[in-house]
Amino acid sequence: IIYLSPFPYYSFSGEKITISYNQESRFAKVTDTEGDEISSVIFFWFAWQAFYPDTFLWRKK
Question: In angstroms, rounded to a whole number, what is the distance separating the alpha carbons of residues 46 and 61?
Fold first, then answer.
């Protein structure tokens, strides 16, 4: 089963991206408007927070 982002696309730094998630493989993929995959990295927030404690966390309003 593949879940697409709840919106047709997200805008990040002025670029439109789409996020899809495959529940079976537990893998997410980010693509641009042409369908080309954008490199992404999986990391754990607590590790990042330990190294960069002043990082601003974005939350949807």
Answer: 22
Residue-wise DSSP of the chain: -EEEPSSS-EEETTEEEEEEEETTTTEEEEEETTS-EE------HHHHHHH-TTPPPP---
- Say whether pTM exceeds 0.85: no
Q: Where are the domains of the chain?
A: 2-51
- Encode pLDDT of 2-60 as tens digits: 556 566 677 877 888 888 888 888 888 889 989 999 887 777 777 877 888 888 766 66
Q: Phi-psi bin for 53: left (phi > 0), alpha (psi -120 to 50), beta?
A: alpha
